[in-house]
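Batch queue: ligand-bound targets. Current item pairs a single chain with adenosine-5'-triphosphate. No template structures supplied; prediction is de novo from sequence plus SMILES. Inputs echoed for audit trail.
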Amino acid sequence: MSGLYPSAYWVGQAAVDLPLYFIILVIMLGTLFIFNKGIHLYIGTFFTLTFCLIGFVPASVLLTYVVSFTYKQISDTRQWWSILFSMTGLITITIIELASVIGNDLISTVCHDLFSIFIPIYPLIGVLICFSRMSWKVSSDENSYTQLGRVLVSVISPYLQCVILLLILRYLEVKNGGKSIRKDPIFRKKDKKKKMWKFTEVPEDEDEDVRVERARVGEYMTSNCYEKPAIMVSGLHKEYQERGKTIIGKAMRKLVANNISFCVRKGEILGLVGPNGAGKSTLLDMMVGQTEPNAGQILIGDADSAQRGVNPVRFVGYSPQVNHLWPEIKLEEHLETYGSIKGMSRSNLKEVIKRIAETLDMKEDLHKPAKKLSTGTQRKLCFALSLLGNPDVVLLDEPSNGMDSKAKQRMWKVIRSTFKGKEQAAVLTTHFMEEAEAVCDRVAIIVSGQLRYIGSVQHLKSKFGRHFSLDLKLDADSGLQQMELLHREVLKHFPNAFRQDSFASLMSYKVPKSDVQSLSQAFFNLEQVKRSFNVEEYSFSQSTLEQVFIELAKEQEEDDNFATMNSTLCWNRRQEDTVAF
Ligand SMILES: Nc1ncnc2c1ncn2[C@@H]1O[C@H](COP(=O)(O)OP(=O)(O)OP(=O)(O)O)[C@@H](O)[C@H]1O
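Prediction returned. Tokens below.
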């Protein structure tokens, strides 16, 4: 709520609403007493009304605050609640008058008392009805006595209502409020006793590079003599409790970060890749403080500047997986707002917006509201917002989702030029291996909440790429017999080659490294095959990062029969180890 604690927000609202409502009511009552000859203003009436108003005004205002939790748009309040309040006032008056007309004082008194106690907008109406009765009716002691009793109920009820409505407001804030509620001096939630986490064990099957990275982070954390990396994540652990499938089913432990440690140096871009649900977004959420880890430490940016009191908003730029845009606000206004929050000057901001619009091809969309932007442009905008103000660290959660390939290439170029050789660092999650290869200096592969690998793309390929890919495209006229002969010839040169799916005249093989003694010999053999078997063209290449990733995910997720990776690829673990893109 406007960056304020909830209590500060409500007190601020009340500081305006209470006097305003009080003044309006005083003017209305004054007018009533001046022009209505039926109700006389005596000293007693004046004090009773004043005392009633002091309780009635806050009770009515608190009621509107409480009902404000039931609507999502401002217009809802005008349409429904104002009509409902007017109708309630009218109905209560009608009921009380009807009871009086039929001469049943008991019903009239019971209704009056019930309305006064349970309907916060009634007590003032009730007091006025009583006053008019006391003025107009032939005065009898019994009548005056009844009316005084009713007045008393109407005057006291609003004070009780204030207490109850305040408690309801607090309950609603605690239930619906965001994180600021924890620090709120009035609406603060009582902290439940936190579960104490034991130091999590280092996974036994941990990769050597991951182990080295963990040791490096440990050194950085304990030593003062190094130039610290831009991001340090140490021993991060997070798990959720998942409900069992049946009502009595036991809650399951879902591990989304299993003792993860890594660091990102200044000027470095680290790619986080992994299958759906591996825990990549949760990791970023923990880095920006949106999700609380169960154990571990995250240090972002220059600790010295944090101690010097530099605004932490300037340290981190974050582009979450779900777009965080205001639907009615224009693209340019988004950039202006974020730029101002990050402390950019007006003139600088204008220049930066112009450059962003040109670089990311958004010039024509500058004056469109966010809801009218295409999905790709919305992603571009979120990406641009995260870069505004040159933050020390930028976290990008699947930034290129929904972008066409041209837009992706532009964005990759911007990312490279922003971080390469600079003081800033970035973490980027992606499903596109092509993206990781094009943009990232190092890649971290996460499977089932565990960091399985970390290193440069080339190192990953040479470490895990156990196969070469061989594709042969035969002449369109070649028949099955020709293909069979070619297959035998391939096996002659690469005895352990494994044939994958063939499409029409295209034959694909996975060739183990052990079958390739020297690359020159392999290409010499393939040239001969090409000449003798009407092969139109062929390609022989080291495994792509995509293939390496599939291998890794398969090795380490032995229990899975099927897994999907976004829309870019899927793999089916069949007995013959077929990879299908
Ligand atoms: N608040 C939560 N409560 C329970 N489980 C959660 C919660 N948030 C995330 N999870 C679970 O944690 C796992 C990791 O989710 P996360 O979104 O981090 O994965 P991801 O690697 O980013 O996946 P994707 O690539 O699909 O975005 C998922 O199985 C998800 O269902």
